[in-house]
Amino acid sequence: MIALWQAERAEDPSLRSSLCTHATALLEVPDGQIDDDLLAAFVETRGLVLLANGDARRALVYFEEQILRYGRGGWIGIRLGEQHARIRLGEPSNDTDTAEPPSSQSARFALHVARVIQGLSSAPQEAEVRKILKALYPRAVDFAARVQPDAKGGLRIESGAEMLAAFMQNRWFRPAGIQSVEDLDRSDTLHALVERINNTRTDTFDVISNSTLALAA
């Protein structure tokens, strides 16, 4: 995961390729030899390495294969990986996804956020963008408000939804001047928010992955 994080942010193509090669080598473990608690992370990360290396088409094929293998009702990470690859390719979401919503509130929220990014990537009309973000904002505020300081001066985060919502408040909404749903009625703040979302896609998907794998609740 460290090599993947570095590869996603490496500006030098040769360094990025080297980091991806290193990450791939670390992930080349037969599934039968991986602890059940870690298997989902291995499966998802293999696809994310393909994305980091710039091969979104191969990543999409990989994630689609994993969905066929494990089912759309399986790990949320492979459904999110498919969404991420489609966003990179500029392709619409798969309308055949009729899986039952995940039971975890963190996974449901993460999937919602990924679909918002997907929707904004297709250049919808301003009224549609406003409607999408007005539906998302109250949920993000609610989850972020649950994050409280701990005794050591840090933050006590008890679910993946709280982690993701806190990130969105700090990197999306507040920098764009969004403090209430009504602020989204202003074109300037709406456009500023969309710009923030588009500029933080990679970081957002990092947090989405962490929230569903490490803190799903």
Describe this structure in words.
With 217 residues, this protein is mainly alpha-helical. The protein has two domains: 2-95, no CATH class; 118-199, no CATH class. The protein has ten helices and two strands; from the N terminus they run H-H-H-H-H-H-H-E-E-H-H-H. A two-stranded antiparallel sheet has the order 1-2. Helix 4 (56-70) packs antiparallel against helix 5 and helix 6 runs antiparallel to helix 7 (126-145). The longest helix is centred in the middle third of the chain and has 20 residues, at 126-145. The protein is globular. The model has no long low-confidence stretch (mean pLDDT 83).
Write the layout of secondary structure elements.
Elements: H1 2-9, H2 13-27, H3 36-52, H4 56-70, H5 76-89, H6 105-120, H7 126-145, E1 148-149, E2 155-156, H8 160-173, H9 187-199, H10 201-213
Antiparallel strand pairs: 1-2
Q: Which residue ranges are poorly predicted, with pLDDT under 50 across at least 5 consecutive positions?
A: none
Radius of gyration: 18 Å
* Number of distinct helices: 10
Which structural class do the helices and strands define?
Answer: mainly alpha
Strand content of the residues, in percent?
under 5%
Instruction: Give the spatial strand order of the biggest sheet.
Output: 1-2
- Rounded mean pLDDT is 83
Tell me the distance between the termini. 21 Å
Number of domains: 2
Shape: globular
Short descriptors:
217 residues; mainly alpha; two-stranded antiparallel ribbon; 67% helix
Briefly say what this structure is.
The chain is mainly alpha-helical and 217 residues long. It has 10 helices and 2 strands. It has 2 domains: 94 residues, no CATH class; 82 residues, no CATH class.
